[in-house]
Give the backbone structure.
Amino acid sequence: MALDKVKPLKLESPDTGGTENDQFPTSLDPSEDYVECRGIVLDDETHADESTVISRDDVDMTFKDGNNTTPVTLTALIAGTGGLTPTAHRLLRQLIHFIDDGPAEGFASGAYKETTYSGIKATAEVWWESGSKLKKIVSLDTTWTGIKKTTEVWKVYDTDGSTVLATVTDTITYSGLKETSRTRVIA
């Protein structure tokens, strides 16, 4: 669909903040004119409401829409967090929140860890939302060569408990029995 671009009519004079006297009605010049208003309401062909607003509140520019009904300031959005609060950040399903040993702050109590072994070596660790084991949160699969752990594969799951959101694979090298390096692949 082509956009119907329109220009507001303007009334400009030096006594209202302009730089020149324009006769009314004059079309706004997009290369030099600013529209003075408290905010704007954005509508589309099916919504003519006040759900999507860019506004000013004292010295703050604010944004809200149907999915974010509490206005968020521009300062919060550009503060390096995208408006993400510390509480919301703890809830993110990012592997950094789980490595080294499962879910912690920001997740509901009652998470359940299941470990699978081959002999005495742990080969899989899965954190579930609960002991009913319906939804995975994070898992670690380990491959062994003899007595050496050679790969670790971390996976973090979406809230459905099965969709993998991210995978981190470490390939481990040794000198004798001592780990000397890891190569990490993030997918």
In short: The chain has a mean pLDDT of 83.
